[in-house]
Amino acid sequence: MSLRAVVIGASAGGVQALSQLLPGLSAGFPVPVMVVVHVPPRKANALVDLFAQKCRLPVKEAEDKEPLVPGTIYFAPPDYHLLVETERTLALSSDETVNHSRPAIDVLFETAADAFGPGLVGIVLTGANHDGARGLKAVCEAGGTALVQDPATAEVATMPEAALAACSAARAMKLDEIERSLEAMVRS
Q1: Which pLDDT value is given to residue 40?
Q2: Where would a tag sit more exposed on the chain, N or C end, judged by fewer CB atoms within 10 A?
Q3: pTM of this prediction?
Q4: 125: helix, coil or strand?
Q5: Which residue out of 114, 131, 181, 188 is catalytically annotated?
Q6: Residue 11 annotated among the catalytic residues of the structure
């Protein structure tokens, strides 16, 4: 099954990890990339501006009911869960926190697994809680590919370790290996 979408979750240390991963994606990367980073609820989202300057792909804050566009990086807005609907549009929700987080990685991963099935790659990066573990398991169960930042290279290993424990099919990789793996998947 060919790659149709990428979802990425990060928490503590995530900006640094994403700063290594996202700028490496080629300008012609042909699938949408959706990102959840645990950010404080009442802060302006500086992530979009930061990554727009670093990345070769367009970067934007996700909007409710927005259709996914290939080759675009979408960040979840502060204090909203980011979901993928089955018709491959984005949705925002202010439902209860999950794993003490809104946006929560599990919410994005589980809904994207339903929408994209085996065409999805889920990536869990550095972080200090277990958010993303259940979602990555859902990606695997839907036939998708699960990649996890090698806990030994993560600023905080808790989230990658939890993801690897929850999803036995997940592969632990260094950030540059994840980026090369994504590029190889879109070429194949």
Answers
A1: 81
A2: C
A3: 0.97
A4: coil
A5: 131
A6: yes
